[in-house]
Amino acid sequence: MVIGGGAAGFFCAVNAARLNKNLDVVVLGKEQ
To answer: Any alpha helices (H) in the chain, and if so which ranges?
Structure first.
């Protein structure tokens, strides 16, 4: 789970998914 849907959070989630194909990635961000 990645908390923070900004550019850094999205980049972190994409890299985590690329490094581990068995990983389920969820990004949580604050709605405006």
So the answer is: 7-19
Residues present in the chain in total = 32
For residues 12 and 29, give the distance between their C-alpha atoms in angstroms, rounded to a whole number.
13
16 contacts 3 by C-beta, under 8 angstroms: no
pLDDT per position as a tens digit, 1-32: 888 878 888 899 999 999 999 999 988 888 76
- Burial of residue 25, with CB atoms counted within 10 A of its CB: 0-12 exposed, 13-18 middle, 19 or more buried: middle
Which residues have CB under 8 Å from 32's CB, separation 6+? none
